[in-house]
Design brief:
The chain has 308 residues and is mainly α. It has one domain (12-297). Helices cover 74% and strands 0% of the residues. The chain contains 15 helices and no strands. Helix 3 (44-59) packs across helix 5 and helix 3 (44-59) packs across helix 10 (186-210). The two termini are 15 Å apart.
């Protein structure tokens, strides 16, 4: 019998289940950011290192024959893709942590949704996707919505810059991830990317991370576990439903973030937040990425990997 990932067998391919996975991903994203705000005395590199370690530990039991290199990257091209996915993921984690700490959670989440706009530009450059005048205008309007969020004297411009940097690198990460999981189970891609991240970050952050108190490590571990749920549930959603529908469900991150920020941190969204977020979402709906930018094609029955 053909072997396949345990996590892959758990994913339902029905559209109704895919919708549920999309909603779950949006909720887990908001919860992960709440826990990230609650992590005391940890720096950006500490968080990135802990996340990579937890990712590897949690995913290792679900990946068959992880020690066999041929099953890891699927060739030189996929190996380059894995390296690029790893680098963009590290940069996204670092910049998102820095920016999210400087901004209200709902505002940071709304700005981060502009990653869809960066994905369109990235697809035009990297994948030669057409960029019509209508879509270009819509994207520019989306960035105007982001400017509306940043009223004078309100959120830190430096924080906004970090969040927009995270959105840009995250859009590239999504492109690389989508290409990788066409041929490899998501859990395998995430596992070996996490191992590479740990190897890169350990020389910089291991000494400082080892000195953190236990409750800080525990909260960072919870954050990492929720982040695994975000990526895995989103991958399952893209496998079972139309790309445009799943993209719409991702915008549920905004109300989830606003609600949780009010509940945990007493952060009340401003009128500027509602206006700016509405402009951003409306513009991205007009100019959302083409299917092959973010779509994860249904994966056929897994081949027998015993030969690897």
């Amino acid at each position: 019998m053909a072997r396949t990932d345990v996590l892959a067998r758990m994913a339902w391919a029905k559209p109704s289940a895919a919708i549920a996975w999309g909603i779950t991903s949006a909720l887990l994203f908001a919860l992960a950011n709440v826990t990230l705000r609650m992590v005391p005395r940890a720096g950006a590199f500490d968080i990135a290192l802990i996340r990579s370690a937890v990712f590897a530990i949690v995913l290792l039991p679900f990946v068959p024959t992880p020690w066999k290199p041929c099953a890891v990257v699927g060739g030189a091209r996929a190996g380059v893709g894995l390296a690029l996915f790893t680098v963009t993921t590290i940069v996204t984690t670092l910049t998102w942590f820095l920016g999210m700490r400087m901004l209200p959670l709902a505002t940071a989440t709304s700005l981060f949704s502009l990653k869809a706009a960066f994905a369109v530009f990235g697809a035009a450059v990297l994948m030669a996707e057409p960029l019509s005048a209508r879509r270009l205008v819509a994207l520019c309007i989306g960035f105007i919505g982001g400017a509306v969020l940043l009223q004078p004297g309100r959120p830190s411009l430096l924080g906004a810059a970090w969040v927009l940097c995270a959105a840009a690198t995250s859009s590239l990460s999504v492109i690389f991830y989508a290409q990788l999981v066409r041929a490899q189970p998501p859990a395998r891609v995430l596992l070996f990317s996490s191992i590479l991240q740990f190897m890169v970050l350990a020389p910089v952050a291991l000494a400082g991370t080892a000195g953190l108190p236990l409750h800080t490590l525990l909260m960072a571990g919870i954050n990492a576990t929720l982040s695994i749920g975000v990526m895995q549930s989103l991958a399952w959603a893209y496998r079972g439903a139309d790309v445009g529908l799943v993209a719409l469900l991702e915008y549920l991150r905004l109300p989830f973030a606003a609600g949780l920020a009010y509940f945990f941190f007493n952060e009340q969204p401003t009128v500027a937040f509602y206006i700016g977020s509405t402009i951003i979402v409306a513009s991205l709906l007009v100019a959302r990425p083409m299917s092959r930018v973010v779509a994860i094609a249904p994966v056929p029955a897994a081949p027998d990997r015993s030969a690897f």
